[in-house]
Every structure is written in structure tokens, then in C-alpha cells.
Design a protein that fits this description.
The chain is of the alpha/beta class. The protein has 5 helices and 6 strands; from the N terminus they run ββαβαβααβαβ. The longest helix is centred in the last third of the chain and has 22 residues.
Amino acid sequence: MPVALCLFASTPDITNLGFIVRVLTGSIDDLPARAVEWGYDGIEFMPDPENVPEPAAMERALQAAGAVMPVVNSGRMGVQQLALLHADAGVRGRSMAAFKRMLDFAGAFRARVGLGIARGKGIPGAGREQMDAMAGEVFRELAEHAERTGAIIMLEPADPA
């Protein structure tokens, strides 16, 4: 796959979240076209993990602009208080569901979903064995889901701070 120069992009609501990186914001219809106008090949899209758009809408916008979307970025999970490795089972469950929605979305494009900060900071006071067991369970379930959807989970380093 050739290298594509992509711009971080998200829906306008990201501006209210205090996200750590400045991103291109706009509607699904507008983002790919603006990225191409600015000289990029496409976008690395950061959807709202609790409200992931329908793939068909993004597909139409990408095709109209002649753009690509090789990566779906899960970075918004952290600022939306979601974490795959979290002490609260409810937060873990919502986070798993959110990440799976992003995998479903990415699978429609055979795209990658960056794991990064979606892991969370871990569980304070948990031992290595407990964290390894939880991580193994969580990542096994996500890998199986990714395989079914056609998405790829991309491991990336992220500072939990």
C-alpha cells in the first residue's frame, strides 16, 4: 500500500473536548474534500466513539473527493472518559462497545484502527498479572471482532499521561 499523506480530521464537536491535537473539523461530507484541497491524500478520521457515523456517508464523501481514509483514530476515547483497561466494569464495557463500533466502521474501508490511548491508564494498584490477564482478555475479544469486520488493529505507543 503506497504511503498516503493524511490529515487528522473529526466532527466539529471535538473542539469542545479539549483534544490534545488540533484537527481539521467539519461535516463528513466536507472533511475529505477540504483535506484534498489542502494537498493531502485523505484523512485519518477520529469519530465520536459513542456515535460512529454510517460507513456509506463517509464512502460517498471519500469517493467524491478522490480521498482515502486508511486509519480510524480512537484518540477521542481518552477525552471522552473511555478506556479499555479501566477499574470500572461499566466503563470497560462502554469502551469495548465503542471500539467495536470503530472496528465495524473501519472494516467497511479495510482500514486500521489505532489502539493508542484507547487502552487507558490501567488500574491503579493492580498487579502485573492482573493487568496482563485483563489486557489479554480485552485484546483477544477485539482481535476476533476485527477479524470478522475486516479491520486491522494498529498498535501504537501512547503516553497515558
